[in-house]
Design goal:
single chain, alpha+beta, 2 domains, five-stranded antiparallel beta sheet, four-stranded antiparallel beta sheet, iron-sulfur, electron transport
Length: about 350
């Protein structure tokens, strides 16, 4: 329906009269070949003259915003209810993750519905009167600011946000729920570590097991100047959490002459010169594997951090920030080396709560 088909008495008044000159057209001639052609006559939309059509558009926009809210709720429900291991067949993609498909579909619908609702609202209910404005200086004098404020108020009034409460409420509902999708995705960052970084698989009474032979270690098995790698009793390679646990519990055992141990705490926590230190470098967590018998130094192969095992495993070279944690050890009733507790401080690279 065009403005030519609408009786003149039904045409909306207001901005047409205010900007009636916008439709004026100039004719180019020899003296003014670049005359401003102006704007064509404004054609009113059906919603401008028919409140029933406007109500229909209002309900359409509200329906789209409501659809967005339902899709967002579906996104959250899918994230909670669908197992990550479940797969479905989707033509023509084939077999795909049911969770990923549900999340993508619901989030896509939620965002599309908000966009479609906003576009339909702007095209059918907001003012579409063409306005020609003269160029003005870049600076904004007081009268310009007043004009901008007046235009903003006029636009807010013409958007009918205050009068079309159904649109306003459903839009606010959709915009409020959609961000919850992003909040739910934060769950994929994983659970909070709590105190897991401070504890390993070592505990009082756990035997030291040789990583190569998978047998408990007796003091007599450790020769002076040798380097042995150990793991906690009960931690097997086929365990689901083996890699996670061994990354914190990996141990290196070295036997020194007791008179060569300079640090009193290290001597007290050792057994007959056998000391047990974390194998995990305190720089970026690389496994330490190089040992110098004469100097009692261990070297990280990644960035050459060097630790003195005869002096509390303190850092003597390289980027590591602190000494290797020591495990207090003793001998069980059966004559095997055992842990007398967990490491006294977190293993591996430093973190802000290190104590």
């Amino acid at each position: 329906m065009s403005s030519q088909d609408i009786p003149e008495e039904k045409l909306p008044a207001g901005r047409d009269q205010e900007h009636g000159a916008a439709g004026a057209m100039a004719v180019a001639d020899e003296e003014n070949p670049f005359a401003d052609p102006g704007l064509p006559p404004h054609e009113h939309r059906r919603q401008d003259v028919d409140e029933k059509a406007a109500k229909h558009s209002e309900r359409t926009v509200a329906l789209l915003f409501t659809l967005s809210m339902l899709a967002t709720i579906g996104f959250i429900a899918s994230y909670v209810a669908i197992s990550p291991d479940k797969s479905i067949y989707v033509f023509p993609v084939g077999h795909t993750s049911a969770l990923n498909f549900a999340l993508g579909l619901t989030l896509g619908v939620a965002l599309f519905a908000i966009g479609a609702g906003a576009v339909h609202w702007a095209r059918t209910l907001m003012s579409d009167v063409e306005i020609a404005d003269e160029r003005h200086p870049i600076e904004a004098p007081p009268e310009t600011r007043s004009k901008v404020l007046a235009d903003f108020k006029q636009g807010a009034k013409e958007s009918a946000l205050g009068r079309r409460k159904l649109i306003r409420n459903t839009m606010f509902g959709a915009l409020t729920l959609v961000p919850l999708s992003g909040v739910m995705l934060l769950r994929d960052l994983g659970p909070l570590p709590h105190t897991k970084l401070r504890h390993t698989a070592w505990a009082k009474g756990k035997l030291l097991v040789n990583m190569n032979t998978n047998e408990p270690i007796r003091p007599s098995d450790v020769a002076v100047g040798s380097l042995t790698f150990a793991k906690p009793e009960g931690l097997e390679e086929h365990d689901e959490e083996f890699q996670t646990e061994i990354a914190k519990a990996a141990l290196m055992i070295v036997r020194l002459q007791p008179e060569n141990i300079k640090d009193k705490k290290e001597l007290d926590w050792s057994h007959e010169g056998i000391v047990a230190y974390s194998k995990i470098c305190t720089h970026v967590g690389c496994p330490i594997s190089l040992y110098e018998q004469q100097t009692h130094h261990v070297l990280c192969p990644c960035h050459q951090s060097t630790f003195d095992l005869s002096d509390g495993a303190r850092v003597i070279f390289g980027p590591a920030g602190h000494a290797l944690p020591q495990l207090r050890i003793g001998v069980s009733e059966d004559g095997y080396l055992e842990a007398l507790g967990d490491f006294a401080e977190p293993v591996g690279p430093a973190f802000w709560e290190r104590g």
